[in-house]
Amino acid sequence: xxxxxxxxxxxxxxxxxxxxxxxxxxxxxxxxxxxxxxxHAKSICINFGIARDFEGQCNLRMDDTDPKKEDTKxxxxxxxxxxxxxxxxxxxxxxxxDYFSKLYDYAVxxxxxxxxxxxxLSEEEIRQYRxxxxxxxxxxxxxKRSVEENLDLFARMKNGEFKDGEHILRAKIDMSAANMKMRxxxxxxxxxxxxxxxxxxxxxxxxYDFAHCLSDYMExxxxxxxxLEFENNRDIYNWVxxxxxxxxxxxxxxxxxxxxxxYTIMSKRxxxxxxxxxxxxxxxxxxxxxxxxxxxxxxxxxxILNFCDQIGIAKANSMVDVxxxxxxxxxxxxxxxxxxxxxxxxxxxxxxxxDGCEKIxxxxxxxxxxxxxxxxxxxxxxxxxxxxxxxxxPPKDYFRLTPEQPxxxxxxxxxxxxxxxxxxxxxxxxxxxxxxxxSKSGVDTSGIKVKSAIQWVSAKECKKVEVRLYNRLFxxxxxxxxxxxxxxxxxxxxxxxxxPAVINEKPDERFQFERQGYFYADPIDYTEQNPVFxxxxxxxxxxxxxxxxxxxxxxxxxxxxxxxxxxxxxxKAFNKYANELKLNNELANILARDEELSHFFEESLSLLNSxxxxxxxxxxxxxxxxxxxxxxxxxxxxxAELVGMIDDGTISNKIAKQVFEEMAKSGExxxxxxxxxxxxxxxxxxxLSPIIDEIIAKxxxxxxxxxxxxxxxxxxxxxxxxxxxxxKANPKVVNELVAKKLNE
Length: 744
Ligand code: ATP
Ligand code: MG
What we know:
Elements: H1 7-17, E1 25-28, H2 38-53, E2 57-62, H3 72-84, E3 94-95, H4 100-112, E4 116-119, H5 123-129, H6 147-158, E5 168-171, E6 186-190, E7 204-206, H7 208-218, E8 223-227, H8 234-243, E9 252-256, E10 259-261, H9 268-277, H10 291-297, H11 301-311, E11 318-320, H12 322-336, E12 339-340, E13 342-343, E14 346-351, E15 357-363, E16 374-380, E17 382-386, E18 407-409, E19 414-422, E20 428-435, E21 453-454, E22 456-458, E23 463-470, E24 490-498, H13 500-504, E25 510-513, E26 517-521, E27 532-537, H14 542-551, H15 568-580, H16 585-593, H17 595-607, H18 611-628, H19 636-647, H20 653-666, H21 670-677, H22 685-698, H23 700-707, H24 713-724, H25 731-742
Parallel strand pairs: 1-2, 2-3, 8-9, 10-11, 12-25, 14-20, 18-21, 23-27
Antiparallel strand pairs: 4-5, 5-6, 6-7, 13-24, 14-17, 15-16, 17-22, 18-19, 19-20, 23-24, 25-26, 26-27
């Protein structure tokens, strides 16, 4: 338990001291209409945690009063989540549907004392009669029905004599109550639907406000803990129990703040939309904040418990930073899991002066002395390293292998560059190196200085694995749904190479892949023939760092946290780019620091006067290509041609990326690619209008919301048009057209 007590535990302490209760009984009461998420985990931790701390009990109760949306698969997922988090419910799982008969009797009881009546207003009339915050409501004329008539109607509602919505049972409280919830709240409604447990027995179903308090009472709950949005329902909770004159001790309701996390969606309804749309692979997609998703991704229950403990129990809603959750995962795994080597983007390395083979003893837990466990790393003449860990034209602070700079192979020897082997088109296919026989890790007498140690695997013994890299599902802090999805949230690497012990010995399910992050053997798709690993979390919080980088001002831009002073020539170029050409500092910095890029940029600029678009293309696309090959298949002239087509509106920025990929592969001219693939941008309003009209017609709810002032939805409509046209629609024209049509 936390050192300082939260407000709930303080209340419970007092209630025990005063003798109000002998035993503390809480409950976790989810509706089985979706998979539980991290918000539910918070509620589970509170309710089960309190029961444990006070040696009481916590009931797991399925609040299954809406037959239309509920299902046993959700019940199973909820049970699974509670167990996975390490809690046990008392004796059996409870269901509100187990109490349907008793709840019905309580309702009859209320009718008999004239505290409930059958109303026959329409839904719309009920809403109108309720009044507003500043205006009293008006009671329905049906409230005057006699007790006999109400009893008769209610029985017939139960027996299925009426259609859905024809009648409704309401509490008779006060139509001018300041708390609008107390204006004759609804207690029972007619629903002709099959219930997943009760079958067709019932044609009436109790509402939350009626069922919840009574279920709590029947289970002997002492503290009924829920989230803040139920604050105004507390009066009904007490009214029902008081009016029925139920014996003490009775339960009381307490509210705490709902957990919200940025970059995350947490309503079951929205999660269901994601699942049904196919944008994610199911409720257990590792990118979802569901317990099933976390479990599949490799999060540990301990880290979730820690997170819930850290954020505490608050009385005011607030938003928690998702990096705090990621921190908890990292913090937990860092101490626990074995460290191994996996190469995600392999390039072959041939050690020219090494013959034979050897096995190197390497600790699984190099940073945790008390924990023991080692494996044998096979070492041989042919190995693979990460393509990125060699650079022919390194930037100043590059610490890995270069033609001049040796590097250590982790746990093994230091190697020095000898020669590059390239294919006919100039791509590097192999690096030849020499190793230093007296530099073995732990017994190094070579005196050679290196700046880093890199991961590697032996070519003959390594195993091929699939690695799934996950990124945040949403790019915006307050995502609303599908429209905010990050298109790059999943990257699958089919041919990563891993050291053999991981597969043969399987010392654990979770690993740190040195320098890459934490990974988990996928519990469903992993097989011996096709091992699959999910990335759990990165080693560091690169996200927050990235944001900081772009915020750093002026010449002091830091890339990867390392900034070297510029030489005179670079400085001159930087000033020209930033001041004369008006490039932003980051672009100017990237180009100025790289001789090859700046030459390329200036040459294309001499052909087309479009500095900003050219600079973007060179600093991003061209730079990325240069990292992967030594000889580009395209020229500055072709880049100028491509950018020319963006500038004159022939193609969109998005399509330009596609054309670039094609050009980088084939060396073909951009003009020819655009022509042969029919990629010309659609800017003609007469072609775009019908598409827009159709999208507007298909989304009446969003149109209505837009008209009510939710102007953010403009982006939704524009996005739909772009999607429909495969990115070919001219965004500017679409924007104008959509805005015009929506405001008509
Ligand atoms: P959702 O809006 O996501 O569907 P809900 O509140 O309708 O959630 P229930 O199944 O009724 O979901 O919730 C079960 C319990 O979990 C309730 O006590 C509820 O207050 C709690 N809970 C749900 N979401 C959160 C959250 N984000 N933070 C804390 N507790 C939550
Ligand atoms: Mg709900």
